[in-house]
Amino acid sequence: MIKLVNLHKSYPIGKTDKLHVLKGINLHIKEGEFVSIMGSSGSGKSTLLNIVGLLDSHDEGEYYLNGQKIENLNETKAAVLRNKFLGFVFQSFNLISYKTALENVALPLYYQGMKRKERQKIAMEYLDKVGLKNWANHLPSELSGGQKQRVAIARALVTKPKVILADEPTGALDSTTTDSVMELLKEINDEGMTVFVITHEEEVAEQTKRIVRLKDGIIISDEKTR
Amino acid sequence: MFDRDLWAEIFHSIKKNKLRTFLTGFSVAWGIFILVLLLASVNGMKNGFVNEFKDDATNSVFVIPNSTTLPYDGFEAGRRIKFTNDDLKYIQGNFKEDIEYITPRFRKGITAKYKKETGSYTVRAVMPDHQKIEKTIITDGRYLNENDIDKKLKVAVIGKKIKEDLFGDENPIGKTIILNNSTFNVIGVFEDEGNDRENRILYVPVSTLQRLYKNTDQINSIVLTYNPKYSLAEALEFSDRLETIMKRRHRVNPEDQRGVFVRNYAEQFSNVNNFTMMLTAISVFVGILILVAGIIGIGNILVFIIKERTKEIGIRKAIGAKPSQIINLVILESVFITTISGIGGMLFAMGLVKLVGKGINSPAFSNPQVKMSTVIIATSILIIAGILAGLIPAIKAARVKPIEALNAD
What we know:
The structure holds 2 protein chains of 2 kinds. Chain A is an alpha/beta fold. Chain A has a single domain (32-46, 75-224), classed as Rossmann fold, CATH 3.40.50.300. Helix content of chain A is 35%, strand content 29%. Chain A has helices at 45-52, 75-85, 101-111, 116-129, 145-157, 175-190, 202-206; strands spanning 2-13, 17-29, 34-38, 60-65, 68-69, 86-89, 163-167, 194-199, 210-215, 218-224. In chain A, the strands form 2 sheets. In chain A, strands 6-7-8-3-9-10 form a 6-stranded mixed sheet, sandwiched between helices. In chain A, helix 3 runs parallel beside helix 5 and helix 4 (116-129) packs across helix 5 (145-157). Chain B has 3 domains: 4-53 and 271-407, no CATH class; 67-98 and 227-258, no CATH class; 101-224, no CATH class. Helices cover 56% and strands 20% of the residues of chain B. The relative contact order of chain B is 0.17. Chain B has 13 helices and 14 strands. Chain B is elongated. In chain B, the strands form 3 sheets. In chain B, strands 3-4-9-6-8-7 form a 6-stranded mixed β-barrel. A two-stranded antiparallel ribbon of chain B has the order 2-10. A two-stranded antiparallel sheet of chain B has the order 13-14. The A-B interface holds A 50, 53, 55-57, 75-76, 79-80, 82-84, 88, 90, 94-96, 98-99, 103, 107-108, 110-112, 116, 155, 159 and B 4-5, 8-9, 12-13, 16-17, 311-312, 314-325, 398-399, 401-403, 406.
């Protein structure tokens, strides 16, 4: 599903200096895997997720998404691929503040060109799946952190993507809601979806099936849990 | 562009962002409002000036003979030019298209006597058209008519002051007064808005007075009004043509400033015209500056809006929005707001001008108004330019990598 070969990424600092963030990543994630990327801040894990999520581009190496080599992608093509293959869950939820839970979930379907009635029906199904059917018409500001993240997960799932990319999905949540969000991700993985989680919390990583540890831009360990 | 869902998105974002919508809308409406008021005020000033000069400067032209100052065609300078009835007929015959009203003026000083009262006055012998040219107001009885001229009747229309002097409280209509040695029947009393002298005049038929003065055919001057449909240029062309022909007819040097003197009020009027043209030029200049300020204002607000929405744009891109869809969304929203508020500001200003403008009619400022087409063009320019100003940041925002947009705050 996701294949990275000797991937490099650096960011310019000032005019001449460069910060080398990813120093040759080799990673192969098969369909249906539940993988977590562990690492302290500055290890390059967020950069890795952004590149995998087509939110950012890599400098060197190769990246295959669903067998398709990613190179020279313009924004329009990237938008189509993201909409088709990827679902995002962010630490800060990134819901649109003036749209209700239902409208937020339905938005990716709008960009697929789906009719209004149909997308509202499907969005409602997914809200039901994350247990928030009764909150459909509430604005994000009226929801708790855990509820917001579940709305975000419903939004990520609504297009039936191949991969769910979660960047510190529990970073802003307390331990109880963290567990419920991780339960939800597990459920999704059990249904066969590839889930790719980035975290710095051991407890979160341990609930996944494979842990990849990153330090200073290189993979230092890659092992299955249990 | 006519995608129902896109518009639903736009209305949604407008409804949920009232302050932003208000700020954009207000700046557009304000710009148009100021512009319309400026144009209306300038037009009001113009109308005021034109009205001011219109009272004096009707479309009248005076043709006055005098002594020549230059030798010409074998004649020496200092020759006295005189007009006769033939000159009147000549002008009437040759300038039919150009003339609205025409009358000769033949003037004599006389002594008028009624019962025991006497006084010295000027008698002005004219034709009926004179009333229209001088705008004489009849307060009692009637003015001279064609029949009086044809039959050379001894009738007189007397000024308000003469009536007061000679008749006191008595009704003068139908009474007989003695002018020098002839008896005249008073047929009317008039009032002139000019000074007292204008009200101490008697009007009698030109034919009658000429008969009394040894059957002369002499007249002092010719007064006429030109075709009221004429533009200023046409009016000036006409009076130049008239002057040339009258000078040729009386063998006066074309360069002679006095021999035959044609005075056209339109010339004074042209100075006013130059002045109002200057006013128009200034208003166009200031109007353009206001438009530019408006455009910059709209552009600024759009830049601000896009900045504010950067994160939202990042989210939309992350879940699959194409750059073109982002640009459409942002620009159509601002197009919608600017158009609605632009038209709103325009209508509000036009309404205000209509409402208040009617009440204002002072010498310097009268009937302020604007042409609908001017306002519509200005509104369109403001809207289009404002959008172009917003397009640049919108495109930039849509091209930014989504991760940068997401990290923005």
